[in-house]
Specification:
By secondary structure, the protein is mostly beta strands. It has four helices and 38 strands. The strands form eight sheets. Strands 2, 3, 4, 5, 6 and 7 form a six-stranded antiparallel beta sheet that branches. It is globular.
Amino acid sequence: MMLRFAAAVIFIFIGNACRGALPYEITTSALTGDVIEGETLTNFSRFVAPSILSNGNTIFTVNTSSGEQAIVAEQKIAFLTGSQVGGAAAGVLFNFLGKAVVNENGEIVMSAIFKGTPIDSTNDSGVVIYNGSTVSMILQKGDPAPETSDTFGNIGGLGHSNNGYLVFSTNLTNSNENAIYFGNGQTLNLLDRTGTMTGDDKLIATSGPSISDVLDPIGDVLAIALWTRVYVDQITLAERTEAVFSAGLPSAAVLWETGDSGFGLPPNTTTTSMFVPGLLDHDGNSNDAFPAFVDYEGETNGRSVHVFNFDLNGPSVTGGRSVAKTGDPVPQLFTFEFAIFSTYVANTAGNVAGLFDAVPRSDETSPGPQEGLAPVQGVWFEDSSGILQLGGHNGQQAPGLAAEVTLQQISFPAFNALNQVAFSSKLAGPGVEGSVNDEAIWATDLGGDLQLVVRTGDLFDVDDDPNVEDLRTINDIGVIASSGGTGGQSTSFNDAGQLALALNFSDFTSGVFVFDLAPPSSPVDLDDDGDVDGADFLLIQRSDPSLIPAWVAAYGNGALSSATAAVPEPSAVTLLLPVMFFALARAKFDDGRQHLHHS
């Protein structure tokens, strides 16, 4: 009994000393003043989130001391404004760099704006690719659009698969119609085009192009694209929406359309629309799936964040499930129900996270008080068992911060295959000052608990050398890419648990940093939640007290950089050590008693 009491005391003191501490290492990827290929890096753009590959290498947008804008990939300059566009006519230069879409091979596809002598409004943009060493033009505005008598206009919705295929939407210059193309860069195929007729139906919109890799049954690598079609009946003017799946080139098949039912939707309901379809990374088996927002009507009306399974060989939908529906009770907030779904992301493990709104439940059977409850917005995510969990919501106590400091204005989340979710928020409450310390980045650990990663106003050590301290005050944190690394999109949060962030400092310097939020498991991390804490001590003292010295040594090691670590007060340490030694002595005494008893 005495040992358990000691463990409880230890847990209390350590929790107060290091509350909110998430064990991670920080690596500086780039810093103001770094020189790459003759260009001195200066400001790192807040509005272009850094991307990170599975190997930990980063891709980010940065300004240079020469007044240019660059995209840096794995310590090389991939694109630079003012430089010649590879594959374009001589004198065509980069004028503005768009969003870079990076696949796991480090290839970057980007829509850019051009300038130069042969450039005017008819050809001032295009799609380019960087393959790790050279830049090539894929298409230029004004080029003939394959399978039409029209030309390419502006490009959007770029997706880029790991096997080199891309998908994008474009407006066609002459007809002003929209089209979706899909190909490997050298060959582009028309997937869909508005204005086409099928019987009495006219295609009026296409949206949501996504792309991924898939292995067919004999192991050949293909690529697939997914999007939605919206038709209008020329006679009744009634709209209907179809989800379309394309396998190979250029065939397409309808997987789901308005009026369908079943596959996890409420009984006696049919779909009225489907939109923003995503696409998971595929292995060519019956577990292939795509998520989407689905509206339904019938006995009940609502919206579902839904996941549909399909069979590539059909192709056909084989099953489905609802991640969350309007009216569903909210996990961990049982007096609320889901009302609005702002966005979702899907990870490569097949799970979904999203930014959802919830309102107080109106039924009399729900536990807890109803009066005075305000709507909340938060991040929910599926864990490895597919169970929906709360990441964080506005109005809640901010973990690890002072009492009554709460989360506000939560942003769109990032989600990795370890089922960790990361997001930014504003802060409100005592001691919070606008534009000084009112912004923070949060992430769940491997056990699903929300932890503070970094906050404006913090001192931050930008030097990787443990023997050198270079502290700077954070005054701005760059955005996180809202992505799960699927659908041909880049991510800021890779499947190894590494989060890439751009930080700006009060001395007008900036940098890109990688936060390792999934450290290797420790032999004294008995609950396998990615940290060594009091919960592990409770398990150790019950199962193997001989591990207590290892727990003492491991607790807090590498928990935070020197810039952000919470240091225990001397009084807490003074109180802690005698209790720790007493626990160790008691454990040895109990072991001795057991030995004598058995003798």
